[in-house]
Amino acid sequence: xxxxxxxxxxxxxxxxxxxxxxxxxxxxxxxxxxxxxxxxxxxxxxxxxxxxxxxxxxxxxxxxxxxxxxxxxxxxxxxxxxxxxxxxxxxxxxxxxxxxxxxxxxxxxxxxxxxxxxxxxxxxxxxxxxxxxxxxxxxxxxxxxxxxxxxxxxxxxxxxxxxxxxxxxxxxxxx
Length: 175
Fold this sequence. Notes:
Elements: E1 10-18, H1 22-35, E2 38-41, E3 45-46, H2 54-57, E4 62-72, H3 79-90, E5 100-106, E6 110-115, E7 123-126, E8 129-138, E9 141-144, H4 155-171
Antiparallel strand pairs: 1-4, 1-5, 2-4, 3-4, 5-6, 6-8, 7-8, 8-9
């Protein structure tokens, strides 16, 4: 029989997608008010791995990732997705989203994304939100699962999450 222990705190991460990169700075300000200072910001990258967002957002989409300075308890962390959905609504243009916010968290062994969509590889977290282990850490780097989104399988994204993991590692004292 194992002993019940509270889980370690995790690193909160956010990926944003928009055709208007000016929204990245505006959204960042709101995210910092909600979750505290950001200590990791990726370069802005082209988002051309899927046409899923084309009808809603148009073409020429860009992506950026943020990591937050504070580490968070896993208790009810899934509610971050509810908060980011409300923030997306704040930036609606003509009834359509202008920015997509993908929240998740990582620890030393995995990257988890939160979603409103259920599927076979997702676990219900509560209040209409599901959790998906998107990447796992092995052989000194993050790796993809068969269900991992195509963009999250790219070397550039893997390097981003490896970098955020190193910051997290320092925060939890594993230097």
